[in-house]
């Protein structure tokens, strides 16, 4: 299982070219359709270079952007200048969230939940920092529902984890339900490999 230090080194090395390699109109459209539902005080997990900032509504009260890679956060800083809401950048391994209970109205993540070593622990932390009535909004690649694609993702997972720092076969919606969330899958793309979801603590 990838350590936090391993993931940090991976993304520190990739930061300079990350945006050019990962730019995708399809992903941007999914993020925009999902993050429009964010409100109040927002915590984003794994903010990377801040490519998501433009997809938030201007009515946010605040955005706290959490990221393990200092090199990625340095690039995110440049994207905060003209935003209509205050942004706080925090470098931290988000397996354990360094915030008081009931600090946020919305927690968001864009392809950031698939690399966490202990999902159940993180989802407990998400529940802890959410205020009553709050929810998690996430765009994730997940284990495909088709049997043969699922087996393929199982087979490539060790290499995927080593090279990319996350899991190819993580069943995130099911893990959230097991952690006590009601999960609404809003969109499925690429034969179910890519999903957007809203998860609300029960």
Automatic annotation (TrEMBL):
A Pfam entry, by short name: Methyltransf_11
Secretion signal, residue range per the UniProt entry: none
Q: Which residues form the Methyltransferase type domain?
A: 43-137
- GO biological-process terms attached to the record: methylation
UniProt keywords (A-Z) are: Methyltransferase, Transferase, Ubiquinone
Domain of life of the organism encoding this protein: Bacteria
Q: Which GO terms describe its molecular function?
A: S-adenosylmethionine-dependent methyltransferase activity
Q: What is this protein called?
A: Methyltransferase type 11
């Amino acid at each position: 299982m990838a350590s936090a230090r391993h993931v940090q080194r991976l993304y520190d090395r990739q930061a300079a070219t990350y945006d050019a390699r990962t730019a995708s109109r399809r992903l941007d459209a999914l993020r925009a359709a999902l993050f429009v539902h964010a409100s109040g005080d927002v915590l984003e997990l794994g903010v990377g270079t801040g490519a998501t900032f433009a997809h938030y509504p201007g009515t946010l009260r605040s955005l706290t952007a959490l990221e393990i890679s200092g090199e990625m956060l340095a690039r995110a800083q440049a994207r905060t200048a003209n935003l209509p809401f205050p942004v706080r950048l925090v470098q931290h391994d988000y397996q354990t969230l360094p915030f008081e209970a009931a600090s946020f109205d919305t927690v968001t993540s864009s392809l950031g939940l698939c690399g966490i070593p202990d999902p159940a622990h993180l989802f407990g932390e998400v529940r802890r920092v959410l205020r009553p009535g709050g929810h998690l909004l996430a765009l994730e690649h997940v284990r495909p529902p088709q049997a043969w694609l699922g087996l393929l993702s199982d087979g490539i997972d060790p290499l995927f984890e080593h090279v990319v720092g996350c899991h190819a076969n993580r069943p995130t919606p099911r893990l959230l339900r097991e952690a006590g969330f009601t999960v609404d899958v809003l969109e499925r793309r690429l034969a179910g490999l890519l999903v957007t979801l809203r998860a609300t603590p029960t």
